[in-house]
Amino acid sequence: MAGQIAARLAALGIALPRPQTPIGNYVPFVVTGSLVYVSGQGAKRDGGGLVHTGRLTEPMTIEQGQEATRFAAINVLAHVNTATGGDLDRVRRVVRLGGFVAAPESFTQHAAVMNGASDLMVAVFGEAGRHARTTIGVPSLPGGTPVEVEGLFEIAP
Fold it and tell me: Which domain holds residue 59?
């Protein structure tokens, strides 16, 4: 991984983890034309342990949820890095992020939680990191992760 984006990641204190292995019958990303679609990633640390477990406000705070979506977004970037052959400077634009937040029915601050992922993309890619987004509340997520983030990226050939 070389270039401006690698330098930005280093300045942010981010080392991309080893990409996570899928937990089902799917691939972690698909490249078609100039687009990279990354499957949903949980809030796992390098090595597999979850950053947080549970649902938002049970017992997690908004800030812990933001930290979890940030970790999930870093895991998304690890797959984008693989898809680009280790050259994140090929990313022209973060097109879209999708976020799933495990929370009780009364929880309404899903967008604030997902900002952890969105803020990271802008910090890493600047204006090219601004993206469309969907955030959905769900009762639970695989493996007990409190959040899951998926992404769509435009890349240069």
Answer: 4-21+28-155
Is the pTM for the entire model greater than 0.85? yes
- Model confidence pLDDT, tens digit, residues 100-129: 999 999 999 999 999 999 999 999 999 999
In one-letter notation, the amino acid at residue 30 is V
How many CB atoms lie under 10 A from the CB of residue 23? 10
CATH number at residue 81: 3.30.1330.40
Q: Where are the beta strands (DSSP E) in 55-146?
A: 55-56, 59-60, 91-102, 132-138
Burial 81-116 (b: 16+ CB within 10 A, else e): bbbbeebbbbbebbbebbbbbbbeeebebbebbbbb
CB neighbour list of residue 43: distance below 8 Å, 6 or more residues apart: 50, 51, 52, 67, 68, 69, 71, 72, 75, 145, 146, 147
Number of domains in the chain: 1
